[in-house]
Amino acid sequence: MAASADKTDESKETTTPAEPVDDLVSTHHTIQVAGGELSYTATTGRVVLREEVHADGKFDGFKPKAEVFVTSYVADAEPGTTRPVTFAFNGGPGSSSVWLHLGLLGPRRVVSGDAGDLAPPPYGLADNPETLLAHSDLVFIDPVSTGYSRAVEGGTPGDFHGYKRDIESIAEVIRLWTTRNGRWMSPKYLAGESYGTLRAAALAEHLQSRYGLYPNGLLLISSVLDMGTIRFTDGNDLPYALYLPTYAAIAHHHGKHGDRPLREVLDEAEEFAAKEYPWALARGARLSDEERAEVVRRVAALAGLSEDYVERANLRIEHIRFFTELLRDRRQTVGRMDGRFTGWEPDAAGEHFTDDPSISGILGAYAASINHYLREELDYTNDLPYEMISSRVQPWSYKEFEGASVSVVDKLGAAMQANPHLRLHVGCGYTDGATPYFAAEHVLARLPIPAELRENIDVRYYPAGHMMYVHEESRLEQSAHLAEFVNARP
Q1: In 181-328, which ranges are continuous DSSP H helix?
Q2: Where is this region: Disordered (predicted)?
């Protein structure tokens, strides 16, 4: 019996996980850009993220907590030259940086096709002569549990799945990269898309107050800085009004406004959404029959829906219901990320679509491209799945906002007041049904900053959706706007 017990004890012995180390790989490349041939070094791999640990009032070491996947591009420059550097990430929460990386900013881009003309598998990659690398070095960051980023062995991924810890971890990656690469004196930009815009705004304030690292600008693509402007929650009528111009733009794209110019339709929708519509929603049962009928007529005409549907919806058109209803007579749905895309549902009488065609239409192209590109062109190998959009980050913690709307408007205002040279570029897609452009305008108008700092805000619009760069004309225009913004520093 004693021998058996000893054997059991031995089987329970565990080994301490090996200390994680960076696994970065560098490769050298060239690309033709407008100014000629550009040579650059790509470095990709996982950086070990460590944190100072204090226990019982004592310093307990600098302990590894996560391995964060980063891809950087640094152009070969003349000695003494100081180039800007742009740190980029997407949103979700739960999205990797693949979309900005291979869709817009990086030196290589995915060939995915566009709405109505999607590329077939196995897709392809092409050089991106419009890459922002021609004007700024680039660092793409995948938050923990996205891409190849993971908590360390034995660590707790959920520690990073929340507003505050996400900001702190990304800030530490930026501080490390800046320090290790001697770039404290370089102009710095933060580029975020979707939830990444909320992250970028909060990061700017955190980097400044925690490390004294002052960015020169924020590139906010498909911006959402106050979740209360886009979340259809009980008692919150604001999103119904702020979404209406986007509904009008999508309806226009699908022929619901005849030959009227888009700008004319949007002007009407914006004026109604800013004045009569919020007033009518606030009036409730105090609306007269005639007033209610007029609101029904206006909303239906602008959104491309039937008056009967608007009446039955109590004047309030929730976004997923809209995407499902707009083209019901054609047995089609439209995309949330980009209303130019159309899809099909087996249940044409359903209340909510089961698939966003603007995501499923391009997902395969981006997945094939990133998995090929990292391994075959950047020489980085890892047998983990590259998590493009990970559900493992849910539920995302917003405990800091308990009882309040999730908003970083105050953080951004504080960052701009402390750093009056901080500039904002905001890119909006007219057919973006995830972060509507009129909501972005609403938030920007309420930034708590002095009047003179409003000159630091540059807003651009594109006739496409959330990832407006899927639309080739928009991609070219947006690339030019970003280059102009980065090059316009004082």
Answers
A1: 195-206, 238-253, 262-274, 276-283, 289-303, 307-312, 319-325
A2: 1-24
